[in-house]
């Protein structure tokens, strides 16, 4: 019995080239074998897929429908086969991974000893920076990105949620009052993050970030922990990811403010890698490991661990 998947591949190639002989050359088989595969498909389906002439093949109506199905199904099969086959390949070599500074130091670096025990043939170069790097130009195998992913050919897997919180120290709130509405923030000393996509003078609220509040303060910085330290000292209000402020909240050094608008949905934390249907085993095992490590409540989840 002829292989059905091979028959589908012959059919798609013949439809594209308009010729069974061209399909046969591309797939490394004889024209007679390519013809047998298409004949077997037509016999199984009970319909003609091609109008055949001495010069060219043209699709029948049924052939057009079947082509659409094959073009959808075959890439899924090939991707699945590639993913399963890659598990047989030992992960080796240098893995260059770029990660945001604070997240990498707090939540990626502590995971690496166990990763190295599991995959001793993989060496890791951990690049820590809050600037978004170009993976291809920089020679990075993968990266961790926080926030909404823009249009990009990069492949991505979600690792965890990343809520934003508005926080201030109890001492600051005692002196200046507790903001109840996002509009109240215009009257407070708001410490700005200079790498924010909206800029440090605007804080965005609402799930889609469609509520814009203009803020001002006497400190801006390009580092979240620096802003946390200032806020803990009572200098002002900050708007930062939960993974940065969670420890200070647990210790009671900061209080999360409940306002009349939800904080902006930051878009989550993702592992990204170049667009390759078959990523190297070293990339695959690292991403699988991170997905496993962040499954369930994240370390910064205030309701979790």
Automatic annotation (TrEMBL):
Gene Ontology MF terms in the entry: DNA-binding transcription factor activity; sequence-specific DNA binding
A single BP term in Gene Ontology: DNA-templated transcription
KW Ribosomal protein (keyword) present: no
Organism domain of life: Bacteria
UniProtKB keywords: DNA-binding, Transcription, Transcription regulation
Residues of the HTH lysR-type domain: 3-60
Ion transport keyword on record: no
Gene3D superfamilies (alphabetical): 3.40.190.290, Winged helix-like DNA-binding domain superfamily/Winged helix DNA-binding domain
Record PANTHER family: HTH-TYPE TRANSCRIPTIONAL ACTIVATOR TTDR-RELATED, HTH-TYPE TRANSCRIPTIONAL REGULATOR
Similarity annotation: Belongs to the LysR transcriptional regulatory family.
Name of the protein in question: DNA-binding transcriptional regulator, LysR family
Species whose genome carries this gene: Stutzerimonas balearica DSM 6083
């Amino acid at each position: 019995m002829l292989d059905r998947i091979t028959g589908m591949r012959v059919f798609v190639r013949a439809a594209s080239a308009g010729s069974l002989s061209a399909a046969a050359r591309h797939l490394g088989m004889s024209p007679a074998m390519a013809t047998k595969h298409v004949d077997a498909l037509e016999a199984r389906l009970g319909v003609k897929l091609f109008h055949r002439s001495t010069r060219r093949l043209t699709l029948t109506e049924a052939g057009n429908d079947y082509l659409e199905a094959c073009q959808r199904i075959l890439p899924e099969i090939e991707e699945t086969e590639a993913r399963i086959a890659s598990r047989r390949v030992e992960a080796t070599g240098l893995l260059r991974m770029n990660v945001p500074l604070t997240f990498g130091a707090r939540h990626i670096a502590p995971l690496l000893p166990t990763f190295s025990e599991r995959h001793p043939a993989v060496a890791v170069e951990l690049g820590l920076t809050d600037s978004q790097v170009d993976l291809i130009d920089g020679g990075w195998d993968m990266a961790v990105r926080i926030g909404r992913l823009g249009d990009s050919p990069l492949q991505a897997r979600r690792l965890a949620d990343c809520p934003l919180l508005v926080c201030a120290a109890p001492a600051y709130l005692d002196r200046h009052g507790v903001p109840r509405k996002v509009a109240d923030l215009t009257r407070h000393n708001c410490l700005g993050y200079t790498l924010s996509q909206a800029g440090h003078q605007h804080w965005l609220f609402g799930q889609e970030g469609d509520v814009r509040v203009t803020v001002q303060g006497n400190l801006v910085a390009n580092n979240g922990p620096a802003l946390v330290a200032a806020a803990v000292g009572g200098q002002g209000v900050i708007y930062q990811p939960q993974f940065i402020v969670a420890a200070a909240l647990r210790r009671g050094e900061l209080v999360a403010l409940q306002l009349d608008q939800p904080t902006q949905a930051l878009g989550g934390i993702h592992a990204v890698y170049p667009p390759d249907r078959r990523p190297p085993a070293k990339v695959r095992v690292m991403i699988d490991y991170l997905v496993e490590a962040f499954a369930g409540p994240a370390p910064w989840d205030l309701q979790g661990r």
